[in-house]
Structures are given as C-alpha cells and as structure tokens.
Amino acid sequence: MSPKLLPALAAGALALCAGLAQAETMNTLERIRQSGSIALGHRESSIPFSYVDERNQVVGYSHDIALKILDAVRSELQLPDLKVRLVSFPPLTRLPMVQNGMIDLECGSTSLNGERARQVAFSAPIFVINTRLMARADSGIRDFADLAGKNVVTTAGTTSERLLRKLNVERRLDMRLVSARDHGESFLQLESGRVAAFVMDDMLLYGERAKARKPQDWTVVGTPLSQEAYACTLRKDDPAFKALVDRTIGGLMQSGEINEIYRKWFMQPIPPKSLNLNFPASDANRALFRAADAAPAH
User: Which domains does the chain have, with CATH numbers?
Assistant: First the structure.
C-alpha cells in the first residue's frame, strides 16, 4: 500500500465513523427532515396486511395504516414532497433491518412480544390474531393433536415457528417441522401435498386461502395456540417518532376511520382475484378499537 494513501484512508475512516455516530444520535424525524425521505418496510405476501398485488403495488390493511403515518410525518415536518423508499424484507431480517436503519418504519404482520421489544420499539397495537392451522377440508385434521407424526410447515422467523416447536416437544407429537421463507412459500408446501398443515396467524391463513385455486378445499381450524397483537415497529429510544406513530394510530381509531380500513380489507373484494375474506371483526379487535376510542390522543 502506498504511504500517500494511508492519510486519505484514515481521513475517510474518521469521516465514516463520524457519520455513523451522527446517524446513531440523530432521531428518525431529524434524519427524515435532512434527507427528505423515509424507508418504509413491507412484506411480499402477508395478505391482507402487507403484500405486493398483481400490479406490483404494495397494499394491505397495515400498509394503509403506514400511509396514514407517512401523511402525519409530511404534516409534522412540512415535507409535502417526502420521498418514500419501499423496502421489502423476509420475516427473519425485519428486526435487524429496523435496528440498523435500513427501515425507518415497518407496518406489516409483526407480533408484539417481550423478546422483540428488547430489539425494537413497537407502536400501539393495530390488530389482534390467533395462532391456528390450515389443512385440506377433507383431511380429517381438526386440531393440533391430529398433526402427530405429520409434516407441518410454518414460516421461518415468526412467533408461530417458536410456538409450534414448543408444542411439538411438550406434547410429544413427533411432527416433522418445515420452515419456509415466507407465507406464500409455506402455502405452496401445503398446496403441493408436501405437508399436512400450515400453522400461522389465523388471518394470514385466510389470506393465503384466498389466493388458492380452490379456496373451498382448505379450512382454518384448531384451538388457538396463542392470541397476539400486531404492531408497527421502529427503532428504540426515539420517543418523538414513536409519539407521532402512536398519535396517528390512536386518531384512526378515535375517528372511526380504522373501521373503514378494516372493512376495505376484510369485508370487501381485495387483490388478488378480487376475493372477499368476509371476516367480521373479532371480539378482540372490536375491544381494541373501542379501547383506543376511549383513550385520549396524545
């Protein structure tokens, strides 16, 4: 290496370190103000929450909530021309991508739990789900005990994967577990007959069933393994951005607009195939929306 190159490399390294330090100390809203852009994370196939439709557009219930948050950012920072960078991610990498700044905000189908809360910050809850299973309607499978000795798929990096492994050990079911990259791949494993069941959050199962060639061939059954809430994720220790996100979500619920978003994605035809999930809000979700409605916005 040329001796003349060393000072230049050293200076470059110092500049890089300074830039990284500034990025770590600068809060999200300041970064967005300076760059004029925000990185919004999305899923590829989490129907009907966050997915890419047949026109290659990102759509979904959670994505609509994210768009409302982006409107709030534009208003807060007076940036009407805010640029939005859509960043796709598989479940396994979502939290690291939020942590390292590749994603500023992620609204999809991420379950809020204590383990994840040590890595990222969560918004106020946006949806409540149950972990169940999907199988062929004529398979005779009606609950998790019926999966003993069978091949079962779930999606890698999800809470369903952790719950399924725990269930397999505790009940000694001797299931042969398969972990797929995303929900679409999990359903392909089921549809092709390579596995007997697909274990996941119930609404994601209904979403995958809606994509099937013959949706009536598949049934969602089973006593729920757990009930969890979905929430958006953002970097930890950023109270200003979290307050804006929570205020926006609370406003949607207090105004009743969340009910319109719900009806759009769960009670009306949606892409692909313009199928209607026809899934009225559960008691848990109605309670969630009412609880937010009763709470004052901050």
Answer: 30-128+228-294 (3.40.190.10), 129-226 (3.40.190.10)
pLDDT tens, residue by residue, 137-151 = 999 999 999 999 999
Residue 201 identity (one-letter amino acid): D
Among 70, 65, 58, CA closest to 32: 70
Classify residue 99 as exposed, middle or buried by CB count within 10 Å of its CB (0-12, 13-18, 19+): middle
Q: Measured between alpha carbons, how far is 60 from 213 in angstroms, rounded to an integer?
A: 21
Nearest-CA neighbor of 49 among 195, 255, 216, 210? Answer: 210
pTM of the model: 0.81
